[in-house]
Each structure stands twice: as C-alpha cells, then as structure tokens.
Amino acid sequence: MRDAVDTKETSMKALIIKGDRLEDIEKLMEKVQRSLPEGDVAEIANINSRAQVVLSGTVKGVEYASSIIQTKGFAGRAVDLPVSAPFHCKLMESAAEKLSPALERTKFSNPVIPVISNVTAKPMGTAADIRRLMYEQVTKTVQWQRSMRFAREKGVGEWVVVGPSRVLANLLKKEFPGDRIRPIATPEDLRESGPLFKHVA
C-alpha cells in the first residue's frame, strides 16, 4: 500500500467532534472536496464514533480540510496519526487494483451468519458481495460507528473485541455505556474470558 503513494506526501488525522456534528462534517467534506487545490486529496477515512472521525489524503489536503472543519466549530483537537499510508481514500486505488486479482482467485462462500461490511454498515448477503466489498474497503470510508449501531439495533448488547489494542473497545464503551464490552487484547484476557473461548486452542 505504501507503493501506491510513494511519490506523494500523505497524512491521516483524527478529529475530535464537538457536540453532535457528525452529519455536518460529512456534508462539509463534500463541499471541501470540490474546493481542494488541484492534486490534493482529503476524504473521511474512518467514522469511529459520533465523537471521532479520521481524515486521509495528501498532507496539504488534510490540513486544508481539518482547518475548515475546526474553523466552523465542528471539531476541536486534531491529531496526526503515525501511519505508513493514507488508508481508505482514493489514493489507495492502485493498491485496490493490485488486490483485485487475489480476490478473484479466492473462493468465497455465502455467509451463514451475519457479517457486517465496514463499507455499507450492513450485512453482506452473498459471496459476490464479500469479494466486491473487500475490494471497495481499500478506498472507502470505514463505517465503524454505523456498523456497530446496526448491530446494536438488531439486539446486540454484549461485545467481544479481539485485537492487540483496546481502542475499539473504548470506542464502544463511549457509544454504548450500558453494554457489556469484553476486550481480548492479551493471552491473559483470553484466559480470563472463561467459557467464552473454551474451544480456542
């Protein structure tokens, strides 16, 4: 993915949203993209919660967009993220094209349980959907908040978050403070989970 932008100066920046202004930021970003200087890119890469979004693109484009959002009073603090590439924006199109042949060679089956796509924030219905959405997720916004909201609306009230960081678990705690959220970030967490993962070797 680094190869996709080897000649560009790129950036990702997290913005802390003020109040309930997520939709305002999304609408503003549509206008910002039309007014960006030629050659610059700024897109919403992640909607992590109603309190946090991440911008991705060229350095100048991301600075331009974040400055406008902050000037409008829609976001407060902006934090540069230490990443190797501007993920989940159109600068990753060449990476998506390189991934495409591998996806075509891979056999996918129709889901037997609901699997929510981070592109659509809805379950993927068919094997073809999985292949298409895995391709699209390279360049599209990660709809984390809306994906979790969809699951919550379907009755999920207990969450198991597996991975080396507690970032996603913390986001869930802020979104759904009354739910039970169990992060599995270390071997010790796995041991303490009891029967939840009793079949994990």
Automatic annotation (TrEMBL):
Catalytic activity: holo-[ACP] + malonyl-CoA = malonyl-[ACP] + CoA
EC number: 2.3.1.39
Molecular functions (GO terms): [acyl-carrier-protein] S-malonyltransferase activity
Gene Ontology CC entries for this record: mitochondrion
UniProt cross-references to SUPFAM superfamilies, sorted A to Z: FabD/lysophospholipase-like
Residue span, Malonyl-CoA:ACP transacylase (MAT) domain: 9-200
GO annotation (BP), single: fatty acid biosynthetic process
Record keywords: Acyltransferase, Transferase
Enzyme category, top tier: transferase
PANTHER family, sorted: MALONYL-COA-ACYL CARRIER PROTEIN TRANSACYLASE, MITOCHONDRIAL
Record-given protein name: [acyl-carrier-protein] S-malonyltransferase
